[in-house]
Model the fold of this input.
Amino acid sequence: MNRLNIITLGTKDIVKSHEFFKKIGFDTSIKGPESNPDIIFFKNEGTKIALYPLEELAKDINPRQPPQIGTGFPGITLAYNAKSMEEVDDILAQAELAGAVIVKQPQKTDWGGYGGYFTDLDGYYWEVAYGEFWEFDDSNMLVIEDE
Done:
């Protein structure tokens, strides 16, 4: 097992979340009626993302005893790796205009890069970061090599 194919985000309002992600630039594919989609897949490069109703996602994990849906930090972040500091600023500004909350303004990082964080409409944390020495493959995926 050496790949991650889909990250599914449980969402409280699939229609509003879909609108948010379209505003920040994602191309999507809707399964089911647009007014009440069953699931939405992102047509992004690399690992795929899906939106799915939160209650249904919990039931999918265990229909008899679904995990409790709570509040607070979910222990997961998603990352967008930018190719410049300007792109970091642009993406964060675009996310804020679409309704995201900027929880960490873009700034120099302790690892020598530049980045910030926002939360989407369902409270998922997204890091937007740039590293001067980062390289990307033909699919725009960050190349991570052993040192």
